[in-house]
Design goal:
By secondary structure, this protein is an alpha+beta fold. Helix content is 49%, strand content 17%. The strands form 4 sheets. A 9-stranded mixed sheet has the order 10-9-11-12-21-20-19-16-17, sandwiched between helices.
Length: 636
């Protein structure tokens, strides 16, 4: 009996032992499998990222995402991180950055590739910036809009444009008015290296070191006081020759040029006025030859149009040209009297044509591009910048922003090359950067390093508001005079009557933008104050803060000075208007002189515009680059 119990006991222990061994084996296998999976995950490598502009039924969301994509690309370029713009559809094995599944996808031309560089610091910064735009960014006001990003899981070989940081010079003269549109598109899409150059400084300031693209906005004869024709004004103004020479030298040395409407006229090789043609075609083919009246940087002639066509359609006839990327074959534009582009030379490439306008403009070129020396020229007969500069009720504003952004990327890009991806990083590398850089706690208590500057900005906003009220008084007085003389100011020929048009532009567009840009600057400075405690041990950052403070202070001083002079001009203007109102039998010459006063006031106030946007853009650039440097530093 005892032996039987012992045997049973041994058998019981054996069963327990076998069970224990089985558990150990299963656990070992499970652990080994997990290790194997971890090793496999470690071994999975990627080559960088690809981001493609989107198309949605909801064009508002589409535009917000695509503008944010352009912001990201511009951030990369300012950080000297290579970005490549695809010239054709590509297929690649990818995975969404926040998904595990690897898939095959096709991307239309115009996608942006950001490859790893092999430099650890740069590659960390690339991933950190990607996650700021794809998931959350501590320095953004709103994180609701997130851009779709794909991880490249295989090497690809494709034709691309290597992109360059856009350093934009915006031309301004008394007959151009579209600079606001280019400015606002630049703000929306992140082209923050932006400076306004009035025509009196173009010859001295325009150079290929500070800038790589010149934009020339539209305008019209109603903005030139003593001239019935904007074209005539252009010819007279350019008899000085120095501006034309400076622009030709800039473009021939590799700078880009984007002109719309009047800006397209200036890029042309001459004008066709009825049966007479004034042209400099040989100058367009040879940068060393002089040109008078126009820049002659593109081999076509500007011919007087049949009038202003308004919102029109254009047909893309060259869908391989980068300006047409992500646009429908029949798309929209805005025509406001731009010349017909005629007598096309061999060096000119037609991108689109006027379509279904019911005028002789149908079938004629609406957008063209060409080369001049080492530089690239894009000319628009219509106004895509006006179409895209602010929210439209018909939701077509996103088209204008796409056109102008494409033109900016194209005219500043390097020559097409073959991209071959060489450097890789593990998926774990990316995940670690995500974990380290999202949801960083920043100081919510202000350190008041910009307290005096922000107070000065608020004072300046008050001065601008008071000056705006004064301008409104002048407009009301002009309205009274117009009523007394039974003049309809809404009529086109009366738009400049006693300077009404100049005051209307100043009050309607400039003052609200002045205030908005200064308020935006204050918001950026508040964010810089919040992150200051995280970066105050970085001597470069502290020095950059001091430089920014000095820059803003000097610009605010200039703005206040111009506003103060503006008060004096307003007072003199009001006295002249009251005097004119009391003496109704004054000559037409007196009316012209009063109109000239309005135009001079507009031109004076415009000079404020040369300071305010840079205050905001410089602040925002410092905020972004400092934050990306900080995110990179906490990973290294």
């Amino acid at each position: 009996m005892i032996k039987m119990i012992e045997i049973l006991s041994v058998k019981g222990n054996r069963k327990k032992l076998i069970s224990l061994l089985s558990v150990i084996i299963l656990l070992t296998l499970s652990i080994n499998q997990c290790i194997a999976q971890t090793d496999l995950k470690e071994e999975l490598s990627c080559y960088g990222f690809i981001v493609s502009p989107v198309k949605y039924e909801n064009v508002t969301i589409q535009d917000q995402i695509n503008c944010k994509i352009r912001h990201m690309v511009n951030d990369f370029l300012r950080e000297e991180i290579p970005v490549f713009w695809t010239t054709a559809e590509i297929a690649a094995s990818v995975k969404e950055i926040d998904q595990e599944l690897q898939i095959e996808m096709s991307f239309e031309k115009g996608a942006f590739i950001i490859p790893f560089t092999g430099n650890e610091t740069q590659d960390i910064k690339i991933a950190a910036i990607i996650f700021d735009y794809n998931q959350s960014s501590e320095i953004e006001e709103s994180n609701e809009i997130k851009i779709p990003v794909y991880v490249l899981m295989e090497p690809i070989e494709t034709q691309v444009y290597p992109l360059s940081e856009i350093k934009l010079a915006q031309h301004k003269n008394p007959v151009s008015v579209g600079e606001i549109c280019f400015l606002e598109i630049s703000r929306e899409c992140g082209f923050l290296s932006f400076e306004l150059l009035i025509d009196s400084v173009i010859a001295e300031r325009l150079n290929n070191n500070e800038f790589n693209v010149l934009t020339h906005a539209g305008g019209g004869p109603e903005y030139a006081t003593f001239y019935k024709s904007g074209i005539f004004y252009s010819i007279i103004r350019n008899l000085r020759y120095r501006e034309s020479k400076a622009v030709r030298k800039f473009v021939s040395n590799g700078g880009g040029y984007i002109g719309s409407c009047y800006g397209a006229d200036m890029a042309s090789s001459g004008y066709k006025l009825g049966p007479m043609t004034i042209h400099f075609k040989r100058s367009a083919n040879n940068p060393k030859l002089p040109s008078i009246g126009v820049y002659a940087i593109a081999d076509y002639i500007s011919k007087s149009p049949p009038g202003s066509l308004g919102l029109i359609q254009v047909k893309i006839v060259n869908d391989t040209h980068p300006v047409s990327y992500r646009l429908d074959p029949i798309t929209w534009d805005l025509h406001a009297g731009g010349s017909e582009i005629s007598d096309i030379g061999e060096n000119v490439e037609v991108i689109s044509q006027f379509y279904n306008t019911g005028t002789r403009m149908d079938g004629t070129p609406s957008w063209v591009s060409s080369e001049f020396g080492k530089g690239k020229v894009v000319a628009f007969s219509p106004h895509p910048e006006i179409l895209g500069w602010k929210k439209r009720e018909d939701n077509k504003d996103h088209i204008g922003r796409t056109i102008i952004s494409n033109a900016l990327f194209f005219t500043t890009a390097e020559e097409i090359t073959t991209l071959q991806l060489a450097y890789t990083r593990s998926l774990t590398f990316i995940e670690e950067i995500r974990d380290e850089t999202i949801n960083i706690l920043i100081n919510t208590n202000s350190v008041d390093i910009f307290e005096k500057i922000k107070n000065s900005i608020n004072d300046t906003i008050s001065e601008i508001t008071e000056l705006s009220d004064y301008v409104q008084r002048l407009k009301d007085l002009i309205g009274e005079i117009a009523d007394e003389k039974k003049i309809d100011l809404s009529e086109k020929e009366n738009k400049t009557y006693l300077g009404d048009k100049s005051l209307w532009i100043t009050g309607r567009y400039y003052y609200p933008l002045f205030v908005k840009y200064l308020e935006n600057t204050t918001e950026v400075l508040n964010t810089l104050e919040e992150i200051y405690p995280l970066l105050e041990n970085d001597p470069d950052f502290v020095q950059q803060i001091e430089t920014l403070k000095a820059d803003i202070s000097s610009r605010i001083v200039e703005i206040k000075k111009i506003c103060s002079q503006g008060y004096e001009m307003c007072e003199n203007y009001e006295k002249a208007l009251l005097k004119y109102q009391q003496r109704p039998f004054l000559s037409k010459i007196r009316e012209i002189l009063l109109t000239d006063k309005g135009h001079k006031f507009y031109w004076h106030i415009y000079s404020v515009f040369c300071y305010i946007p840079q205050v905001y853009f410089n602040s925002l650039k410092l905020l972004r680059t400092s934050w990306y440097d900080y995110e990179t530093s906490i990973v290294i």
